[in-house]
Amino acid sequence: MKFKALTAVAALMVAMPAITLADPDDDTLVLNGETEMVTKAAAPAHMEETGIDTVMSGWHFRNDDTQAMQADDFDNPGMLAVESAIEAWNTVEGEAGKSCASCHGAAEDSMKGIRAVYPKWNETAGELRTLAMQVNDCRTNQMKAEPYKYDSGPMAAMEALISVQSRGMPVNVAIDGPVQAIWEKGKELYYTRTGILELSCASCHEENYGNMIRADHLSQGQINGFPTYRLKNAKLNTVHGRFKGCVRDTRAETYKPGSEEFIALELYVASRGNGLSVEGPSVRN
Amino acid sequence: MADGVKPRVKAPKSASAGEVVTLKTLISHNMESGQRKDKSGNPIPRSIINRFTCEFNGASVIDVKMEPAISTNPYFEFEAKIPEAGDLKFTWYDDDGSVYEETKSIKVG
Q1: Which helix (H) or strand (E) segment is A86 a member of?
Q2: Alpha-carbon distances of A248 from A51, A231, A240, rounded to whole Å
Q3: Residue A225 in contact with residue A160, Cβ under 8 Å?
Q4: Chain B neighbors of A75, CB-CB under 8 A
Q5: Which of A19, A53, A222, A255 has the most crowded CB, counting CB atoms within 10 A?
Q6: Active-site annotation holder among A100, A201, A204, A246
Q7: Eight-state DSSP code of residue A26
């Protein structure tokens, strides 16, 4: 745990137990009593200058009840969305008369490991693609169907279905080669202060993770657990939906889900979690 | 019948006589409270699961009356003593008159 100025001030004023209460815990996440997940990992090399040596899943920052809910698939409400996405996966839509399964077969086989490497550079299209962009590319070009709205329920559910196939595999997004410029842009956005409160992503998730921001326990802002079922709105939330919420909370006009800015930010934030297990759909409050 | 309603139950397949087992149940349901309004300002009619029961070989294990403040996809976890082999019958009652049922058999031995 790195030393924090705020914690030091707090230590002078209140008793120690109150501080340890806010620190991330050391529990181990085991899914369904079988799969052990990597929820703490050595920080990737590019994070050297941040002073963070261990990257931690947001799971560690939630209370025991919420943690337990994620550890059992029956209790995890996000799995309901996975079920509905399996139906969508097998449903023929669009003029081409295809479903996802027509090309990809069973999601259990074809989607294994996919979530771990996205956002990913698409050589043919010459662009960086998030999972959502890839899903919509398939829908519009292969199926000739209507695309999903970027941060809608059906999109989040489809992302959940794809994520489940990679659960337990380490996040491993590439940040070099053709995507390096986009990654740099994402990094710049991460450190850019926005809004009336003048907060950047780093203000909360790098400098103050582990501290309380009023009633909220600040995590490192990792996205390895997305899409995330949040108890506060009782639905699956997408990465861009969460970004939008965070930027709004700084009291700024937000970028749009699916915008160039959020795509770059997603790549950068994802790369900060390289080494952590894919957890989606995770459960948070 | 409301859309996307599907009952789910997690129960052990076998137990020793007299053992107390944990049962988990969940039904996917919107649980529309009746308090909300749609985009044009009209109230959305209430549509919830208003009662949930569990019986073991005809004897009541649990009987729950549910109200509109209960959140979407209601989940119940409770314990039951299994004195003999038999069937657990779970029943959910919808506002619209639909009844959803699920049965799990438990062996003793």
Answers
A1: helix A78-89
A2: 27, 19, 12
A3: no
A4: 24, 75
A5: A222
A6: A246
A7: -
d(CA A32, CA A167) in angstroms, rounded, equals 12
Q: What is the ipTM of this complex?
A: 0.76
Distance CA B109, CA B99 (A): 32
Question: A119 preceded by cis ω (within 30°)?
Answer: yes
DSSP conformation class of A278: P
SS3 state at A252: coil
A146 at B interface, C-beta within 8 A: no
Between CA A275 and CA A271 the distance in angstroms is: 9
3-class secondary-structure state, position A236: strand
Amino acid at A102: S
Chain A's closest residue to B76, CA to CA, is A75
Q: What is the DSSP string of A7-20?
A: HHHHHHHS-HHHHH
Spell out the alpha helix ranges (H) of B1-109. none
Contact residues, chain A, for B10 at CB < 8 Å: 74
Which residue is closest to A232 within chain B, CA to CA? B71
pLDDT, position A35: 86
pLDDT score, position A234: 86
User: Which one, of B52, B51, B54, lies nearest residue B22 by Cα?
Assistant: B54
Residue A52's Cα: distance from chain center in Å? Answer: 19
DSSP state of A205: H
Mean pLDDT of A22-44: 87
A100 catalytic? Reply is no
Residue pair A1/A210 in contact (Cβ under 8 Å)? The answer is yes
Instruction: Please answer yes or no on whether A80 and B75 come within 8 Å at the CB atom.
Output: no
Nearest to B13 by CA among B5, B23, B4, B3: B23
Closest CA to A42 of A283, A284, A275, A280: A275
Size of interface A-B (CB pairs under 8 A): 16
Q: How do B75-82 and A282-284 pair as beta strands? A: unpaired
Instruction: State pLDDT tens for residues A217-265.
Output: 999 999 999 999 999 988 999 999 999 999 999 999 999 999 999 999 9
pLDDT digits (tens, 9 = 90+) for A36-63: 999 999 999 999 989 899 999 999 999 9
Please tell me the total number of residues recorded for chain B in this structure: 109
